[in-house]
Design goal:
The protein is an alpha+beta fold. Helix content is about 45%, strand content about 10%. It contains seven helices and four strands; from the N terminus they run H-H-H-E-H-E-E-H-E-H-H. The protein has a four-stranded mixed β-sheet with strand order 1-4-3-2. The radius of gyration is 16 Å and the shape is globular. It starts with a helix and ends with a helix.
Amino acid sequence: MALALAEIIEDRRPEGLFASQLSRLRTKSAVIATRPAEEVVDLIRAWMASRAAAIGVEVAPADITSIREDSRLLPSGLSDPRTDLAAAAVAEGYIARTDLAVFADDHFLDLEAEHERPNVFLHVVDTPSNPTPRLLSAADLIDHGGPRETQAAMHLLGRA
């Protein structure tokens, strides 16, 4: 439902929903558009918590560019070009579950290791949307927790 809400905010109709589900999602979309920003941040955090499996990986700074340029990773959050964030030292995006293993092999990513300072954030879904819906990218920014990221999320949603 989190992914369907993101599609609604993009003015696209998600497939396979009952009328009642669609109505609830439209109500949530209206809440995001009209409630005070601090309330919206908490709602997005709650509503979008199950949007994707998230993996954080630490790589050498020299490897970030090739990861960001890989077409299998659809930019989001800190890497979303629609934000005004200058976060060249990180890569963040959505990747198809079926591409993850080969992507990790191609970039020598250890997905199983404990990473103290991740600088690559992968959000794994069945089928990523291109471009990444604004709500997904905003939720990714909010998850980083900083005021700069939260402000960028609100800007992305037309709330700042």
